[in-house]
């Protein structure tokens, strides 16, 4: 008869086994959790733009102050580009919620871009209004505005106004639009040149050119092709002299004897001569190609003082001739 006793594990041993099993189960769950949650993060934020009709998720980030960072970076870029910022405002309500999201969803740069899309920035701008042009042109500064006008003035002198305003940077005119305007001015000048050639051809066929009423001692030119612009109102502005179209190099004669007060460059007049006569009248000659006298010199009536050109604000070779009596401009054709 076998009297051997059966082995029964103690309570302590049972507890050790249960604890071991529990640890194994926990480790399995932790491993599975880490595997599935490895791309998750706690404390990430996602931002939304909310307007009247809808709420749109615009991005995910870890940055606490990404809104101010995005705005500061954008304003700094505008200043580098030459803007003088006056004010800015985020025109849509931006909300954010703290939650657990996938790390792969983080898109700081896209989020910043979306924030800037909702940002209104006003700056100090210069508005240019050109006569007979319905378009208003906006520039970052007065310097850039004048550079644009100078581009156009190379072809046709512009009648324009400048105004300092505070308005949205989105109004600044794109370079493509400026190029379009410049091209239209070029085409306008080409059309004027064609019309001028047609008038010259008609005059040549007539066998004579138009002449001033009087001889070389009383008229500034012995002969000229035609009067390209008479004294009087022109494009809403007073044209203070008479323009005689003539070939470059055509001699110009002193209207009367007198003293040369100026023989030098004078802005839009280009090469310019002003003569004061003994009776108090003044004669002025503009757009010359070169001078035949100098400032301070005494000249006599009918003396060659210079030659026709196209300097300053000029669309072609001609003499712009002015007469002033008692300090006022008069129609030169009444005194030739």
Question: Can you tell me about this structure?
Answer:
The structure is a single chain. Helices cover 28% and strands 35% of the residues. It is of the alpha+beta class and 336 residues long. It folds into three domains: 40-122, no CATH class; 123-177, no CATH class; 226-335, Glucose Permease (Domain IIA), CATH 2.70.70. The strands form four sheets. Strands 8, 11, 12, 13, 14, 15, 16, 17, 18 and 19 form a ten-stranded antiparallel sheet that branches. Strands 3, 5, 6 and 7 form a four-stranded antiparallel sheet that branches. Strands 2-1-4 form a three-stranded antiparallel sheet. Helix 2 packs across helix 3 (108-117).
Give me the secondary-structure topology.
Elements: H1 11-37, E1 40-50, E2 55-61, H2 66-80, E3 85-90, E4 93-102, H3 108-117, E5 119-130, E6 136-139, H4 142-153, E7 160-168, H5 175-205, E8 226-229, E9 232-234, E10 237-239, E11 242-245, E12 251-253, E13 258-265, E14 271-277, E15 282-291, E16 298-299, E17 304-308, E18 318-325, E19 328-330
Antiparallel strand pairs: 1-2, 1-4, 3-5, 5-6, 5-7, 8-11, 9-10, 11-18, 12-17, 13-14, 13-16, 14-15, 15-17, 15-18, 18-19
What integer is the average pLDDT?
86
Count the DSSP helices: 5
Total discrete domains: 3
- What is the CATH domain class of the largest domain? Mainly Beta
Key terms for this structure?
336 residues; alpha+beta; Glucose Permease (Domain IIA); 3 domains; 10-stranded antiparallel β-sheet; 4-stranded antiparallel β-sheet; 5 helices; 19 strands; 28% helix; 35% strand
